[in-house]
Amino acid sequence: MTRLVRTLAFAAAVSTVINGWSADKKLVLIAGKPSHPPGMHEFRAGCLLLQQCLAGSPGLKVVVHTNGWPASDTAFEGAAAVVIYADGGGGHPAIQGERLKLLGRLIENGAGFGVMHYACEVPKDNGGKEFLDWVGGHYEHQYSCNPIWSPDFPRFPVHPVTRGLKPFSIKDEWYFNLRWRDGLAGITPILVARPSDQVRDGPYVWPAGPYPHIQAAKGRDETLMWVSERDGRRAFGFTGGHFHDNWGDDNFRKVILNALVWVSGVEVPPEGVASKLPADALKQNLDPKK
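The structure corresponding to this sequence follows.
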């Protein structure tokens, strides 16, 4: 190799490293179509609010696609992570057509993945296997349950996603008794609480229940948010997010902002992601609903 060739090769290598350091990670947030009464399942407003809070985060670029799945697969080019905040079940946007295959390729290539609230639910025979692999767990119809209740979160594990959190309690449609990956391999519970006997006895949002297997587990702690890290792949699941006004709670908001940064492969600040909302922030970008 001549000196000129060696010099050019070295310069190219240095340029690649520098560009790798300077390039922002691309986080794709998919906000579902309008759903539920006003103030509930405000996916568009919630994602745009989170994008606003992350606008100053170094090393991260947040792109929001509203009203469901992006029109073109080019939306995912260069994505460091994909997070879905949308309705789930049989209408889950990720299980339509060939989208599971698309997500599988992204995740196999190192992209992070996250699901929030209803997007935690997929049918066990259509997306369940993939979600166990990618996220570590999912909501399963009539195995899991979805009461509205106010869990207490007095303590948190040591993890980048919990940085800066303080004990809090908040009313939401918190799912529990999820279907988990065997042995909880690679899973770290983030938000854990113990439902009261009354919560287990129902009613749940739908179907109203109660389910005998949920009642039989009285006194057991339940994981309401978790992260998964396995084979270098990062993911998280968050069962809250039903009520839009909850984004006004500093700790509720911070744990998700931390998770979005972490799942994208960006370092979470020592005190977590700081954010302040304008007075009218929760009234912005709401879907027109009757």
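The longest strand covers residues 222-230.
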